[in-house]
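Sequence in, structure out.
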Amino acid sequence: MSDSESDQEDISQKIEHYTGPVEDAWKMKIPEFKPDDNKNGLLEESSFSTLFPKYREKYLKECWPLVQKALEPHFLKAELDLIKGSMLVCTTRKTWDPFIIVKARDIIKLLSRSVPYEQAIRVLEDEISCDIIKIKNLVRNREKFIKRRNRLIGPGGCTLKSLELLTNCYVLVQGCTVSAIGPYKGLQHVRSIVEDTMKNIHPIYNIKALMIKRELMKDDKLKNENWDRFLPKFENKNPNKKKAKKPKKEVKAKKEYTPFPPPQPESKMDKMLASGEYFLTEQEKKAKINKERREKQAANKLKQKEKRELDYVPPKESDGPSSNKKQKTDKIDVKALKSKIKKANKGK
C-alpha cells in the first residue's frame, strides 16, 4: 500500500459519512497538533505587538495575569507596557506549535478592541477563530454610517443577539470595527451579513434566510437539494429612477458660406450719432430726458384713471324677458277639464 492510500484511509476515518472523495471540506475534522509532531521546536523567535487605547488600561492591568497564565501551557511570553500603551506576545525556545503565535496575536488585538477576556481567550481553541471586520470605509457619509451601524445592533441589541444565536459566534460592534469570535463557518456568515448591512441591505433578510437554512438542514430529504426555491427573494423597492430624456435639439439649417465676416453691431455712440443726440448740450439732454419722463407719467395716469372708472360702469340690462321665465301662452281646454271633474265626482 502506498503512502497516499494510507493517508486517504486515515482521513476517511475522521470524516463523517465518508463515501468516497471529499466534496464538503466542512465535514472534515482537523487532527490535533501535538508536541510529538514538532520535536525540534521553532528555529527563530516570532513576536507581535499592538497598541491599546487609554480607557482599556485599567481592565488590561487587572486581566493580564490571566492572559499570561493561559499562554504558559503553549510556552508563549506576554508583556504589557503601560508607559507606551502596547501589548507584546512572543515565542520561546520551548514553543512547539508554529501557529499558536498567530492565535496569541489575535487575542491581544481583540483585547485592544474592548472584547472581554473570557471571549478573547476562546481563540486558543482549534476550531475557534476570530474575524475583525473594518466597516469604516464601506460607507462614505458619516450619518449613513451611524444609521447602518445602529441597524446592525438593533433596538436593545436584539438583532445582534439573534445573529449570535444563529452563527454560534460572539459579535461586538465597537467604533469602526466589528469583532467576531466563533467557528469558521459562522464567521463567514457574520462577515457577509455585516458587509450587506453596510451596503444598505437590512440584516433581518439574511437572518431570516439563515433560519430557513437551519430548518432545511434537519430534513433528510431536502438536505442535499437546492434551497433557492425556499429562500426569500427581496426586491429593491427604491430602484434608480431613469433620467428623463432631454428633447433633441433642433438642427439649424446651415447658412451659405461667405468669405466676408458678419457686420459689426452698432455701439452706443453710433446710435447717438445717428439720432443726433451726440451733438446736444447737457441742458438739452436733461430737457429731453425730463420730457420723456413727463410723457410716460401722463400715459400711466390715463391707464390708472380708466381702471378706476371701470368699477362705476353699470351693467347692460336685457330688454326682453329671460329665457328661464317665459310666459305660458298655451290656451286651456275648458271642456276637457269639465269632463275630468265630472268623472271624479261620479267615482265618489
